[in-house]
Amino acid sequence: MKRTVILAALLALGALPAKADEGMWLPALISQRIEDMQAKGFKLSAEDIYSVNQASLKDAVVLFGSGCTGELVSDQGLLFTNHHCGYSFIQRHSSVEHDYLKDGFWAKTRADELPNPGLTVRFLESMEDVTEVVLKGYKAKMTEEQRQALIDKNTKKLLAKATKEGNGLKASVEALYYGNQYFLFIFREYRDVRLVGAPPSSIGKFGGETDNWMWPRHTGDFSIFRIYAGADNMPADYSEANVPYRPKRSLKISRAGVKEGDFTFVYGCPGSTQEYVHSEAVKYIQDVSDPEKIALRTTRLNIMKKYMDQSQAVRIQYSSKYAGVANAWKKWQGEEKGLRKNHVVPVKQAYEKRFEEWAQGTRFEGITRQLANLYAARNPIYRAYEYYRETVLTIEKLQMARNPRFNMKDYYQPIDEEMFVAMMTAFDEALEDVYKPRFFLERRSQYSSMEAWKDAVFTFDNEAKALSEALNDFFTTTIAPPVAELNKSINLVYRDYMQGQMEFEKGKTFYPDANLTLRVAYGHVEGYRPLDAIYYDPVSTLRGIIEKDNPDIFDYNIPQVLRDIYARGGFGSQPVCFLATNHTTGGNSGSPVLNARGHLVGINFDRVWEGTMSDLVYDPEICRNISLDVRYLLFVIKEIGHADYLFDEMTFAD
Ligand code: ARG
Ligand code: GLU
Fold first, then answer.
1. Dihedral (C-alpha) 281, 284, 286, 287: value to the nearest 10 degrees?
2. Nearest ligand to the C-alpha atom of residue 589
């Protein structure tokens, strides 16, 4: 109990000013940050951001689908998110006759808005520190198993109470700071969400993979949806009788724009960060995981690209898969570089040395060595785990052998045959034989070459099935369980190491790592210096789109109408995107970017490549989030979509 008290005291130290603009803060505890926010320009109160008694900004923010954020922009359930967050839904409504991905989509009336089975949005009703309830009955002499059983039991009761029959609520209890604090989150989830508008991909995905994670950026990355509810405004299955949802709160839109230095904050659902890990964890990512995965994905991307360049049909089949592989591939490159450039490993090592000196004679003594030993034990098998996922488990022929519902529409066998040879070879060469199933080793000695093995697998379904099952079974029974066990042990030590770090650095503010729960990040509009002698301005304009425009380059081929508008004159300085210092990560896509008065000025959609190590360490000099300027969204709605009837239901602050 005493420990809990100390920890509570340490967590309350959140009131100290944060270094620069780092941090993803819990909205319910934002009162601890509010003075710092106000000192940096924020004009509202903590209650405006989060309140359980009255409507607040939190009521205008949703978890969109399973991993994006969206925001309410009218009292009739209108919602903005990113184009790349709506992409798969836009794709599902597209056909050769109506190619909404290519041409865009604008519902002229409510009746034209398109339903999306499976798509949900979640509003946060409330969040609450339940650490004491979750740990109720805990005794210091309990084993870890007993402790966990107690937590499970207490959590179950909490959830049952929060979601009691008929209230239509969902709830979850999330561990923060590696299980040092627990929060109960209560949600209301709506499941009739319809597509209202999307720009053509040549605007919404302008720059494609070439510009992804990069600045200067000119992507009109937005799409528009509407939430529908039953007549009682409560969640309902899709029905023609449903009506537009009336939110407790929607955002006012600012047309005043932003300039360098302006205060901004991002309200959304960041997915995952690891800011407090040991140097060995970083070293593994920087020296092993990132470089190896990058190399493997380079091979896969080259194979896909070769065939996509030869055929438009193959390009369409593989564009979404390609984007998925390329997105992390490019992020990891920025991350690896950033970790090295910032000397994160030696800096963490020096920190650990100071920590151990301080920890002598306390219960924290030796904890960093303990972590180093655990990583040494985990890394070889974890590397094998990652290899499975990046090589043999990506082979589509082996996936379809196990999965009768495999999507054959987007399958092109010549790509997969080359993938088979390349990925099986990489897997075999990189891993010791102990990490491979017996069946694999037997077959390897029977076939004269990987080519011959490939021919057999692609000719005889039995052969594909046998290999697929052997690899998959070995992975799930022999590779994944020890990895899970070791990670569990590591996280247990982090629970103490986290407390140790908080006691060691009493003057530092700790925010919980991201876990897809609602957070507020705040900062200001600012450019950065990617390299010596280069300064990047924080605002991009339509002029830059015209500079990039090239009908021969797929990623830069803009719609003719945009060329015509530019040629007519008057729109050259139309703002398109901007940079700010808000600390964001994957999951923050689609998040509202708000100004000092809480008005919508942008939609977050990316980070700069040089700053992607912010998932492990945030460098205020270089970490920037990239947002769509809301004025470009309005421009595209009006000039490209001719859908400015949508403005009638929006509220403009200025
Ligand atoms: N990089 C952004 C985010 O991480 C945008 C992703 C859109 N996808 C793409 N491959 N361009 O996820
Ligand atoms: N595009 C990312 C997403 O889908 C956001 C970029 C980032 O990782 O910060 O959430």
1. 160
2. 2
